[in-house]
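Weekly modeling sync, notes
Attendees: S.R. (lead), two postdocs, one rotation student

Agenda item 3: backlog of single-chain predictions. S.R. asked that every request posted to the team notebook include the full sequence so nobody has to chase files. The rotation student volunteered to paste the first one in as an example of the format we agreed on. Action items at the bottom.

Example entry:
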Amino acid sequence: MSTTSLANAFEDFINLLQRDIDRDEVEAWVNRIRLVNFNAQQVTLGNLNKFFCNFIKLNHIDLIRKHLLGAFSDLGLEEEFKLLIQPGVEQLTEESSHKEQKQDLEEDGLNPLYTFEQFINGGNTDIAYAAALAVGENLKENKYNPLFICGDVGLGKTHLLQALGLRAKEKNSLKLVYASSKEFINEVIEGIRFQKIQQVRNKYRLVDLLLIDDIQFLENKETTQEEFFHIFNELIQNNKQVVLTSDRYPREIKNLEERLVNRFNSGMVARIFPPDFETRVAIIQTKVEKKGIPLDQEIIDYLAGAIKSNVRDIEGILIHIEANISLLDQDISLDVVKRILKEVLNLEGSPKTIENIIKVVSQKFDVKIADLKSDKRTQEISKPRQIAMYVSREATGLSFPAIAEHFGGKNHTTVIQAYKKTKEWIENDAEIRQTITSILRELT
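Predicted structure, as returned to the notebook:
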């Protein structure tokens, strides 16, 4: 592949971007971006500062992927290519291309920034952090095998998973594989399609440490579950370590084979909860110092009090604040921060409305809002509906008839029965108790 053909394709890519991006942004970053590395499976872009890298990832990543495919398809770029946007990287050279490919191979897909030292550990993560550290420090002991880390989106599961992998590599000479469950699913599909399934099996079985992120996406994937079951069994039987993350407890993953649920529960299940106020302050202070954002303690405390759901929301708000400083040359006051919070996270309204509760529960259990309000009585619908009714009563204090109106106008006795039934679950089922606690935390 000639340098000229790469340059021509990249020029086409820039022209496509310029057509769809506002003029101010074209001047700010489009005309500065450079092609660092290219092959059929991966494209690396660079020559931008850290702010613009984060800004692009939040706002334009789909557009960039689309135009890269349009510009580089004739050069063999695969549709599911990996896209990296790195700060402070110079233009493509043969040496830099070789260096990056070597680095990617050495890192096994792990981000070298996701270390234990960079993780802010608080009371919400202490058990998961301690378990991950113990496994990473002494992989051969297999004290927690499998280790199953669960928690809501944006609380640090991926960070802990990768930190464990980095620490294990630092301590041992080993072979590990890190992958998201979506990557694993795609590999199984491609393996079956092109009769290379044995290669996929060997990749995941012949390791000392297997790290799979977001294992909940195996739900409803029968063939993939079958493949993973045998991989999992072989690794455990050979005293190899398996670490998984999920956004919910094993038994809450819909349509997951019972034998997999039992395997996942056979080791240690460690829950990550939303950070408390003090931990959120520490997280914000750490990120503000790294980014060099001039925020006083009053603003930091306000942000910590307002953003209670997850760390990802904190990062998003800080990027918007940084944009106001960098792009608009604007001083950051408490009023400006309040405006940004209102625009980005819509924090002005109370989250404790029944409609919002129904939305949160529907997302937690992956069911449609319309189904929660319907008369459907299947287990997959009725149980989340009863939990939503219970949470509505606990969070709002509204009367049972008032709550019933929000669930398709049902009789208020239905809500009473749901409330009583859910209380029984809370008393007898630790997983449901933790799930409802998580929902209430998110709402408050």
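Discussion: group reviewed the output briefly. The beta strands are 34-39, 42-48, 82-87, 147-151, 176-180, 209-213, 241-246, 268-272.
Action items: rotation student to repeat for the remaining queue; S.R. to check formatting next week.
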